[in-house]
Amino acid sequence: MNDQIKQEIISLIKLLIDEWELEIENEITPHTQLIKDLGFSSIDFVELFVRIENQFQQKFGFHQLIMIGDKYIDDLSLKQLISFIEKNEHISIELNPENTQKSISNNVDSCQKLTLENLEEFRKKIPEPIFVNQINQTKNPPAVFILSPSRSGSTLFRVILAGNPQIFAPPELHLLSFDTLKNRDKALNNQENRHLLDGTIKSIITAKKCPIEEAEKIMNDLLEKNLSTQDFYSLLQVWLKDKILVDKTPSYSYHLNFLKRAEMQFENAFYIHLTRHPYGMIRSFEDAKMDKLLPFMDSQEFSRRQYGELAWLVCHQNIMTFLQNIPSHRQIKIQFEDLVTMPEIIIKKICAFLKVDFSAEMLNPYQYKQEKMTDGLKNYSRMSGDLKFHLHRQIEPSIAYRWRKYHQIDFLSDFTWEIAQSFGYDPERLN
């Protein structure tokens, strides 16, 4: 192993860890795993690869390293990364001085408690949805919507539901946010957001049992017809026949009008309100650098931790407001902590709520991943999701309160705690 390359890569990673203010317990060595040991998310991989190419002033084609046979690897060690770089010719190891400078982080105190004024400022940052086309007077058949902020365990929950043969639970669809497929494509078909279009393609592939090329052609034809998103939902439900459609798209909860569209478009839709302890969600939000993925969080007005709390708060406020007008028999609240600590009880409760039979396969979400639509397409779709999902082999109860290792000082605002307590979370139990 080339010691110079090894030191350069380790130095780059240490620099990123310092910038991101991560708490790493063990020494970084060639055996360090980027996801398992350092908690890297997809955006972290992208940033690291860009830094490496700038450092060595060369393109390396890292997609060959992280994708094998159209499937993404589950993790990447520094040894694998270094060996891949060594195999490339004409490597220049001269230091690029621009990469040695630590980026300046904002000076916001991440433990400073938010105010109601901060909450109002954040709400103003969230873009107002614009809908041009009218909703169809004839509503679609019932569907199920999982409502939660991002980083609340909704990916695991979706895959659990996908294990039931009576349920169709695809990756995030991002349909309610737009009135037509063409407007959706216009907003999302760019370098930063293209992966958000994959959920509908995966849905077509699985529902129609067709190859990706045919699914893409079907979607292109629907785009040419300027099909409404409501009609696409309807078409998908026709393909599914008797299966229940589940839409798990956390971004819907950022705006009350997105949620209202579900009730306007579907007859007697069902809603599963998924909660997670705010400290657990915020810790995951920080790890995933979620603020970098949402344009309205691009300012340094708030710290990443504060953005996480604001996202938790606004989403749950919107969900609670929306559900006030939904009959009790069409809504249910589930704690992520209960889901992972007593999965069989909670899953049976959900099956009873949805009036479907319990399936033991639901207890094994990490088996038969392809059938549950957790694999990527030809692009970086899997890398854009929660890579940590692919590291687990079973539902792990320990993840429920893993945040307690990191959050030992209460920094939540009183109004956040008020909602958290209404969900059953105790402010006295931080340790």
How does this model look, in words?
The chain is an alpha/beta fold and about 425 residues long. The protein folds into 2 domains: about 5-100, Non-ribosomal Peptide Synthetase Peptidyl Carrier Protein, Chain A, CATH 1.10.1200.10; about 145-365 and about 395-420, Rossmann fold (3-Layer(aba) Sandwich). The protein is about 40% helix and about 5% strand. It is built from 16 helices and 7 strands. It has helices at about 5-20, 40-55, 65, 80-85, 115-125, 155-160, 180-190, 200-210, 210-225, 230-240, 255-265, 280-290, 305-325, 335-340, 345-355, 415-420, and strands at about 65-70, 70, 145, 165-170, 245-250, 270-275, 330-335. The strands form 2 sheets. A 5-stranded parallel beta sheet has the order 4-5-3-6-7, with helices on both faces. α1 crosses α4 (about 80-85), α8 packs across α9 and α12 packs across α13 (about 305-325). The radius of gyration is 22 Å and the shape is globular. Residues about 90-105 and about 380-385 have low confidence and may be disordered.
